[in-house]
């Protein structure tokens, strides 16, 4: 029996993820990342794809660029797009990345001086079934440092909403406090971060590309006025 078209597609996507996964850099690569106050960081971006309720084909692809550290909007781009790839859990990037990448490429072409030095992605990076979520995919293809920030816990690799997880959340006393999300293999895949004093609900931060986890967590906290970092909240 030959594989169905859906199985063929899944195999193709899995091998593509595995190939691109080899290119992810999980370390700080930029000078500003090594500075205690992120000296030299001037532009932070955020990308998101938002859907109209009840319609999972038409969406709005959004990119904003804010100044750092004062988080004022420097650039905004939103385009209605029609998604062609099917939604399959764990392969969200194949639906969304092309449109987010196009937004970054438009900016690079039209106003290159406003290109962000780091991009926050509304989704996961290494905290993913195969350690290659949307933030990794966009990071590798764009070549930009990327940070995945998810609002909900993806229950993967043995990480779940256990009583222990809930008690760790309760122990986060103030904005900036975090704890590691450790997969079944013992690898730290991301961190749960209390991003603001005002919000006791954490966000889940993971490396996308060209940044270390500790720096990604510190930067996420620095970009939060509320629970969600401003570059994503402004989308």
What does this structure look like?
GO terms for molecular function: DNA binding; metal ion binding; RNA endonuclease activity producing 5'-phosphomonoesters, hydrolytic mechanism; single-stranded RNA binding. The protein is globular, with a radius of gyration of 17 Å. It has helices at residues 5-21, 92-110, 134-142, 163-170, 213-222, 230-233, and strands spanning 43-51, 58-67, 73-82, 118-122, 146-150, 178-182, 188-193, 203-209. Helix content is 29%, strand content 24%. The model has no long low-confidence stretch (mean pLDDT 94). An eight-stranded mixed beta sheet has the order 3-2-1-4-5-8-7-6, with helices on both faces. The chain has one domain (5-233): archaeoglobus fulgidus dsm 4304 fold, CATH 3.30.2170. With 235 residues, it is an alpha+beta fold. It has six helices and eight strands; from the N terminus they run αβββαβαβαβββαα. The N and C termini lie far apart (46 Å).
Main features:
alpha+beta, cytoplasm, archaeoglobus fulgidus dsm 4304 fold, 235 residues, magnesium, eight-stranded mixed sheet, metal ion binding, 24% strand, metal-binding, DNA binding
Summarize the model shown.
The chain is built from six helices and eight strands. It is α+β, with helices and mostly antiparallel strands and 235 residues long. Helix 2 runs parallel beside helix 3.
